[in-house]
């Protein structure tokens, strides 16, 4: 690494070589070890700017803001296992059975609903509209 | 492809409607996003608005998040910066043709060297930078992003990022020269 490149890196990324791009750190450290007076002069100048920049106060989030954002998060999903809770299970199965019976009557004896299609239809039910039972 | 994203597990749980995951993500990211917005905009209220809007987008994005495409933190920085730029543009649109005179708040010889005063001077110097230079300095110095990630957030090459950083820091060095001589 040339001195010019070392200086350019310090002027861009600041005095902490650890914060420079990973691929140049080792070479930079070697140069600093080979010419400590040069490296110290360059880094000391940038260190002063870094320190000045660090005087800018940190932003702090109020608990009000924190809670407001948490409250804006999506509501917990209603899950099948809740819907299929004991009391709801009976109602659910009765509903599915009644729907199947009705469909069977309407389509006559020649029609059939495959188990896969039935399972899919149940899966497609919008559980959010099913009232909670029990 | 990217390495394992430390935020990915939380996103999956958020998409599944887990309130504890939402709370954990807010705790993890809000200070960073608020800091980013406040340093970009120099205004606490506007920064809070940006943070709120950014999280609304997070909630919408979580179910659609595709692991391995990008780091979530990078995406969140980009979204937040876009929201900051919307506000900066709006400010310019409402600005009059006769902009207010910039007040020289440089310290008088008899002024105390209070930390708050130094912080205010730094804030003003940052605000005076061109937007892209300020963005580069904020991402690399304050948000502590690596050069590759910062360049990705800004949509520029690493070389362009380095140029923006150099110019930004040069201007800051000039503006804050008196502070650095102490």
Major sheet details of chain A: none
Instruction: Give me the number of helical elements of chain B.
Output: 9
> What is the averaged pLDDT score of chain B?
88
Counted beta strands of chain B: 0
Instruction: Characterize the largest beta sheet of chain B: strand count, sense, and whether it forms a barrel.
Output: none
Q: Tell me the CATH topology of the largest domain in chain B.
A: Rna Polymerase Sigma Factor, Chain: A
DSSP strand content of chain B: under 5%
Mean pLDDT of chain A: 73
**Count of structural domains of chain B:** 2
Order of helices and strands of chain A: HHHHHHH
Proportion in helices of chain A = 55-70%
Class by alpha and beta content of chain A? mainly alpha
> Uncertain runs of chain B with pLDDT below 50, 5 residues or more?
100-112
Shape of chain B: globular
| Chain oligomer state | heterodimer
What does the radius of gyration of chain A come to? 34 Å
Give the key terms.
heterodimer; A: mainly alpha; B: mainly alpha; Rna Polymerase Sigma Factor, Chain: A; Arc Repressor Mutant, subunit A; 9 helices; globular
Describe the protein:
The complex is a heterodimer of chains A (134) and B (182). With 134 residues, chain A is mainly alpha-helical. Chain A folds into two domains: 3-53; 80-128, no CATH class. Chain A is built from seven helices and no strands. In chain A, helix 2 crosses helix 3. Chain A is elongated and about 65 Å long. In chain A, 15% of the residues are buried. Residues 102-134 of chain A have low confidence and may be disordered. Chain B has 182 residues and is mostly helical. Chain B has two domains: 1-96, RNA polymerase sigma factor, region 2, helix turn helix motif (Rna Polymerase Sigma Factor, Chain: A), CATH 1.10.1740.10; 113-176, Orthogonal Bundle (Arc Repressor Mutant, subunit A). Chain B has nine helices and no strands. Chain B has helices at residues 8-15, 19-41, 44-61, 72-94, 115-128, 131-142, 147-154, 158-175, 177-180. In chain B, helix 2 (19-41) packs antiparallel against helix 3 (44-61) and helix 7 (147-154) packs across helix 8 (158-175). The longest helix of chain B has 23 residues, at 19-41. The chains are: A mainly alpha (134), B mainly alpha (182). Chain A binds chain B through residues 8-9, 11-14, 19, 21-22, 46, 48-53, 55-61, 65-66, 68-70, 72-77, and chain B through 14, 16-19, 22-23, 26-27, 30-31, 34-35, 37-39, 44, 47-48, 51-52, 55-56, 59, 62, 115-116, 118-119, 122-123, 126, 137, 140-142, 144, 146-148, 158, 162-163, 165-166, 169-170, 172-173, 176, 179-180.
């Amino acid at each position: 690494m040339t001195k010019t490149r070392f200086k350019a890196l310090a002027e861009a990324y600041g005095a902490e070589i650890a914060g420079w791009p990973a691929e140049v750190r080792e070479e930079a450290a070697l140069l600093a070890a080979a010419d400590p007076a040069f490296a110290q002069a360059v880094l000391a100048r940038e260190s002063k700017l870094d320190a000045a920049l660090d005087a800018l106060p940190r932003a702090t989030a109020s608990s009000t803001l924190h809670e407001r954002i948490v409250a804006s998060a999506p509501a917990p999903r209603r899950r099948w296992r809740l819907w299929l809770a004991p009391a709801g299970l009976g109602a659910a199965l009765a509903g599915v059975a009644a729907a199947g019976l009705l469909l069977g009557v309407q389509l006559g004896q020649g029609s059939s609903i495959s188990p896969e299609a039935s399972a899919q239809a149940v899966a497609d039910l919008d559980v959010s509209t099913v009232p909670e039972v029990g | 492809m990217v390495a394992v994203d430390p935020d990915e597990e939380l996103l999956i749980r958020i998409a599944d409607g887990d309130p504890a995951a939402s709370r954990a993500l807010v705790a993890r990211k809000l200070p960073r996003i608020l800091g980013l917005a406040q340093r970009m905009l120099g205004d606490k209220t506007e920064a809070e608005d940006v943070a709120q809007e950014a999280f609304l987008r997070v909630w919408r994005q979580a179910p659609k998040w595709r692991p391995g495409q990008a780091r979530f933190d990078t995406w969140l920085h980009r979204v937040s910066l876009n929201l900051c730029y919307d506000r900066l543009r709006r400010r310019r649109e409402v600005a009059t043709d006769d902009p207010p005179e910039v007040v020289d708040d440089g310290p008088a010889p008899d002024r105390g060297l209070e930390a708050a005063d130094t912080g205010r001077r730094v804030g003003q110097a940052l605000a005076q930078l061109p937007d892209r230079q300020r963005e580069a300095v904020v991402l690399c110095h304050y948000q502590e992003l690596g050069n590759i990630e910062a360049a990705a957030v800004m949509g520029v090459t690493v070389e362009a990022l380095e140029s923006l950083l150099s110019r930004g820091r040069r201007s800051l060095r000039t503006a804050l020269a008196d502070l650095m001589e102490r």
